[in-house]
Amino acid sequence: MRGMWSKRPVLVLAGIGFIVYTAMFLKRGYEPTVKTGKDAGSLSMSRSLSDLEASLNNLTNTVRAFEKKQDAIQKMVEDSQNRERRAAELGQKQNKQPEADAQEEKKPPKDSKSSKVFPNSPLFKQWGENLSEDDQREAQDLFEKYGYNVFLSDRLPLNRALPDTRDSRCLKKSYPKDLPSLSVVLIYLNEALSILKRALRSIIDRTPKDLLKEIVMVDDNSNNENLKGDLDSYVKMLEQQHPTVRFVRVRHTEQRGLAYARASGWRASSADVVAILDAHIEVHDMWAEPLLTQIKSDRTVVLSPVFDKVNFDDLRVIRYEPAAHAFDWALWCMYEGFTPDYYKMKDGSLPGKSPSLMGILVADRKFLGEIGLIDEGMKVYGGENVEMGIRVWTCGGSIEVVPCSKIAHIERYHKPYLPDLTPAMKRNALRVAEVWMDEYKHNVNLAWNLPFENHGFDIGDVSERKKLREKLKCKPFKWYLDNVYPQLDPWDDLVAYGGLKNVNASMCVDQGPQPGHTPIAYTCFYDYNYYLPQITYYRKSGELYIGGIKSHKYNDNRCLTDINNKDTEPGLYPCKEAMQKGMGTYWDFTQGKELKNRHTKRCLEIKNAKLLVQPCSGQVWQIEHMLKMF
User: Fold this and answer.
1) pLDDT digit string (tens) for 198-243?
2) What CA–CA distance (Å, rounded) separates 392 from 356?
3) Which residue, 102, 93, 112, 250, is CA-closest to 186?
4) In angstroms, rounded to a whole number, what is the distance separating the alpha carbons of residues 515 and 47?
5) Same domain, 392 and 528
């Protein structure tokens, strides 16, 4: 198909040449007859010639129109050798789609190869070699505004094909006919128009018409002008083309954040099942049926599809392996393998249990309301997915990832609506901990290097969420750790944490250049509150970790060591490796006193701004936070 589409202009022009040649030949061959008028067939031939010339004119006009349609395709041709064939094929197909599929025509880039205007931009590391300098500037401006390649998105078909990345066993599955109805909620804030259109297009094209009841679009107070009139016109067009699908628009008058926006979408939905999605996605074929089938059999299960990655630069779809959605004690999201029992089944098409969610979720609409929907007290971004994971599991439900359901999701290079996510993440994590984590709530403080008291964040009123937990008779967080997420290290033997300061030298221990195994003495950065290279954790066992602590039992921390030779520099090695090599990994420490290695009896000290292990001279150390419960 790619070859046929790319050769079509050549074939058309060849046809024109043939017709022109034929017309000239006929005109010369019959010219005497036409001039004298003596041939009885001259009038007929003259009409044939006129018809031929008219056909030529019509064909010429067609070619001109066709050439205009090639503009968007030519743009992609200049971008990448690999993507140009795919873009040409899809672009030609797009010309035959209804008007709703049409993209605004863009002028193709110049043929001449230009120098890189932004050589250090991540956008141009793998993409855009043949762009003109003007196009590079336009692409960079859009990238800085959105965090992904809008310049390219505007030139891709809205209904582009996606690679089928499902397990082969998914292709053999069949699903019930009487599945529950579906509401799809799209959350967006200043999303690029073409990205949002493509999400809508994919949902409509790849969701069975008898299942898709409505699409709810929640605008968290965008100020992009094209998300008003232009988007309104596009949605109206979709309504006319798909009268069985209800389109619901929700617009916030102020930015309320992801959690509140998702709750708004839930309130506006009316189908049996609600799928709450980001707007920078494209759904795959057969994405809905596996999810609806699971919920039909168990209304208390909350589901997630498997996300394939869409590159922020070239927008290619990269297959991701199915995995559980997990988190660390700072409540940052992460992927993690399913349980060992899952892999024993040796069937990658089966749903797997997951401790948490990544934000996108599919659930029975009424059940989601029964267990407290979403904590709308979360601000902007972060933590709400972990809160839901803990709440669902401890309050009577479960969470599964469904490998046969795939969604392609753009991973932004940066989030333009909040360049620094850290303050919002800290605040929301502390809120989750206060409501749900019981005696383990201070692990969030430990992870963020915050004091247990007076941490400086207003987490809002949590009284209603605590009442909800009591009303639902939810299990304690320890049950969650023991039964759902035993991989988390409970950190129940920590004695102290924070910056480790030598009082005599007024300097702190720092992990030093990475990669490397030599810690250093360096200026203290207490004011930064979360300067990871200097964060220290001291366990009851005597292990002293420098540069942070791992949240999971399967990860190894880096222990401060006395290498136990004539070398006077301390080491910083993975704890298991250090113990295997006989290094001194255990230290005796009391706040305001010396720090002595239990094995070598040498002390950690600072001399001439250099960190050493040497015979003890009475230097004293202080660690930023002591845990009162120990």
Assistant:
1) 999 999 999 999 999 999 999 999 999 999 999 999 999 999 999 9
2) 9
3) 250
4) 85
5) no
Give the pLDDT confidence score for residue 5 in this predicted structure. 39
Q: What is the pLDDT of residue 29?
A: 41
Extended beta strands in 167-209, E state: 182-188
Q: Looking at the domain assignment, is residue 91 inside a domain?
A: no
Whether 111 maps to a domain, the answer reads: no
Residue 15 lies in a domain: no
pLDDT digits (tens, 9 = 90+) for 334-385: 999 999 999 999 999 999 999 999 989 999 999 999 999 999 999 988 999 9
Contact predicate 312/535, CB 8 Å: no
Radius of gyration of the chain (CA): 32
Closest by Cα among 427, 461, 456, 460 to 444: 427
Contact 114, 128 (CB under 8 A): no
For residues 442, 448, 449, 450, the Cα torsion angle rounded to the nearest 10 degrees is -60
200: tokens are 């809508």
Q: Which of 358, 380, 410 is the last residue of a domain?
A: 410
Residues 443, 447, 452, 455: what is their CA dihedral angle, to the nearest 10 degrees?
A: -140
For residues 538-542, give the mean pLDDT. 95
Report the C-alpha gap between 447 and 596 in whole angstroms.
26
Q: How far apart are alpha carbons 31 and 23 in whole angstroms? A: 12
Residue 268 clears pLDDT 90, i.e. is over it: yes
Q: Is residue 518 part of a domain?
A: yes
- Alpha-carbon distances of 204 from 164, 177, 615, rounded to whole Å: 18, 19, 74
Give the separation between CA 45 and CA 186, rounded to whole angstroms. Answer: 64
Same domain, 532 and 563: yes
pLDDT band with cut points at 50, 70 and 90 for residue 113 = low
Question: What's the total number of domains in the chain?
Answer: 3
391 shares its domain with 536: no
**Are residues 211 and 305 located together in one domain of the fold?**
yes
Question: Of 429, 452, 484, which residue sits at a domain end?
Answer: 484
The token pair at 382 is: 């972060």
Domain CATH code at residue 473: 1.10.8.460
Count other Cβ atoms within 10 Å, centred on residue 379: 23
Q: Determine the structural domain holding residue 347 and report its residue range.
A: 171-410
